[in-house]
Each structure stands twice: as structure tokens, then as C-alpha cells.
Specification:
5-stranded mixed β-sheet, about 325 residues, 4-stranded antiparallel β-sheet, about 40% helix, alpha+beta, globular, binds zinc ion
Length: about 325
């Protein structure tokens, strides 16, 4: 009811009739811009299920329990490593493992997690029912070719349904008898047995693996520039990339979020102690002007999309 009151108020400004709760629920299946002035061109629901972009908006919300779970795991790992002489290296190794192993053989996952003093069940779990396919030789799953998480099975469709970025890159397939037909640009994955496999819990996958892929990609591009040194996930400071070139230094946080306005509010409420670059993936370059407009300069953030940031570092040569 509150949502229908809010939507109706926004519509009243444009002389549009109010929406009842039933109207609003029906409207979830059509593009938001069709019923909410200034809304996006995407729908919130499709065939009775929330769309990836809808799930991302919920996940990105400040009260997201998923983000808190992930924070707890990462902070506990840092705590447990504490003052060990190899703490920084152990932390980076753990983070990289999570980014590169959305699924892993049970033994590998247990070793990686135990190395930072955390129980396997806090970070990994068995393959979810919604990703399993029964075959004569036992249950199998298909890993997403981009992020490695098990693809969701819906009827004859297989997709990385919770990640708008994976979907945009083409992680979408059709099951036909024994074969998997690509519907996007990514090649079909091979089936893997569910037995003995550990799958990252959704909060860790969403808040460590997905942004981590963008972080590693940016680090790789920067390291191709002669003389540039990149440290991923510096242990003591809470940002993603420490980039150095001669006497230049950039502190970088990579943000791969759906709502630029929500990100802007989050940053405005948490000013940086030192100038920090917020870098968004190229596919989200439209967010840069929104962030510029909505985060006050005294918060000490600077904004760029990936390619623009790489050019800036090259320009410092
Ligand atoms: Zn994926």
C-alpha cells in the first residue's frame, strides 16, 4: 500500500491517475517507465518471477542481509589473520580464491577457507535444488561461463539469473535434449556432477565474486601499462586496488551496482579519508555523471569508468 501511495504521488505530479495496489502489482510486469515517471526501461517481474535487475536493486538496498553476511566473513578472515607475518598475502589469496571459485571441489574449498580460520559452511554450501538437473548418471549442474556460479534452471532455460552483468554478457542458454544451446555470446558450459562440489553462498558470490571479476579485470588492464604496479585488496586499507606509477598513487574502489543514486547516497554518507577513485565497469559508464552530480566534493571521491581510468593512468606517464 505504501508503494502504491508513493507511485500515485509521483504520477500525480504529471497529471496521471493514481495506481491501486492491484494496478501496481500488474504493472511490475511492464517497463517501470510506463507507470512511474522517470523510471527505467526494465520490468521488475517476468513470468511471475523477479527479474535480475529487480533482484540487484533489492540486494543493493542498504538493509540487505546478503551484504552483511559477506561483510562478516571478510572481516572475520581479516581478524583471524591478524598479526601473522603473512597476513596480507593470506588475505589476498583468500579473496582471489573466492572470486575465482564460485564453485570448487569440496576439498579445495575447505582448505582455502580453513586457511583463514573460517568454517566451510559459512562460505560454501551444496548445489541448490534450482540449479540441479537429473541425468541417468546422477545430478549435474552447469557453471556460468563468466562467474562460475551454477546456472539457474527454469524449464528449458539455463541462465545466470541473479547477475544482470552475466546476463548482459550472454550467460543465457536453452536446454535441448542432451545439448545446451547458447542464446548469447558466451560458449556453452560443460555439465559437472553435483557430488563433492561446494558452491559459494549467494551473499559472498554477489558481493565478493561479482565485483571481484571487475576488480581483477581492471587490475589486469592497468598492469599492461609499463611501470604500473597494482596491489589488489590491500590488507590494511579498505579499498580494492592500490595503483602506483612512479611518484603517483591512486586508491581505487570498483563498484558494479545497479542503482547509481543508491551508490551516490552511500558514498555521500561515508566520506573517504583520502582521495579515492570510484571506478564503474564500462557497461555502467552512464553512472559517472550521476555520481558527479550527487556526491559532494568534500566526500573526497573521484569518478571514472574503467577505460577512462586506464587512460588517465597512461596519461600520467
Ligand atoms: Zn554468472
Amino acid at each position: 500500500m505504501r508503494a502504491s501511495a508513493w507511485a500515485s504521488r509521483a504520477r500525480a505530479h504529471r497529471g496521471l491517475r493514481p495506481l491501486s495496489v492491484a494496478d501496481l502489482v500488474a504493472a511490475f510486469e511492464v517497463p517501470v517507465a510506463d507507470w512511474l515517471p522517470g523510471g527505467g526501461g526494465f520490468a521488475l517481474m517476468e513470468d511471475g518471477l523477479p527479474t535480475p535487475i529487480c533482484i540487484e536493486l533489492v540486494d543493493d538496498a542498504g538493509t540487505s542481509a546478503l551484504a552483511e553476511v559477506e561483510q562478516r566473513v571478510i572481516l572475520r578472515a581479516m581478524d583471524n589473520l591478524g598479526t601473522r607475518t603473512d597476513a596480507a598475502e593470506g588475505y589476498t589469496t583468500f579473496r582471489r580464491f573466492l572470486v575465482e571459485h564460485a564453485t570448487a571441489p569440496h576439498g579445495d574449498a575447505a582448505r582455502a577457507v580453513r586457511a583463514v580460520g573460517i568454517d566451510l559452511s559459512e562460505v560454501y554450501e551444496p548445489v541448490a535444488a534450482g540449479a540441479k538437473l537429473a541425468t541417468p548418471s546422477g545430478d549435474v549442474f552447469y557453471p556460468c561461463p563468466r562467474c562460475g556460479w551454477p546456472l539457474a534452471v527454469r524449464g528449458s532455460s539455463l541462465s545466470c539469473a541473479r547477475s544482470a552483468t552475466c546476463l548482459a554478457e550472454g550467460s543465457w542458454f536453452r536446454l535441448e535434449k542432451q545439448s545446451v544451446i547458447p542464446l548469447g555470446k558466451l560458449d556453452s558450459p560443460q555439465p559437472r556432477p553435483c557430488t563433492g562440489v561446494a558452491v559459494l553462498r549467494v551473499g559472498v558470490w554477489r558481493y565478493t565474486t561479482l565485483p571481484g571479476l571487475a576488480e581483477i579485470e581492471l587490475a589486469t588492464r592497468l598492469e599492461e601499462i609499463a611501470g604500473v604496479q597494482v596491489e589488489l585488496w590491500p590488507f590494511i586499507d579498505r579499498y580494492d586496488l592500490d595503483v602506483r606509477l612512479g611518484e603517483h598513487q591512486w586508491r581505487v574502489d570498483v563498484k558494479d551496482q545497479t542503482s547509481a543514486m543508491r551508490l551516490a547516497r552511500h558514498l555521500a554518507e561515508r566520506p573517504a579519508r583520502e582521495a579515492t577513485w570510484i571506478v564503474v565497469p564500462d557497461a555502467r559508464r552512464d553512472q559517472v555523471p550521476i555520481l558527479h552530480r550527487n556526491v559532494p566534493p568534500e566526500a573526497r571521491y573521484l569518478f571514472a569508468y574503467s577505460s577512462e581510468f586506464v587512460r588517465r593512468v597512461k596519461g600520467a606517464l
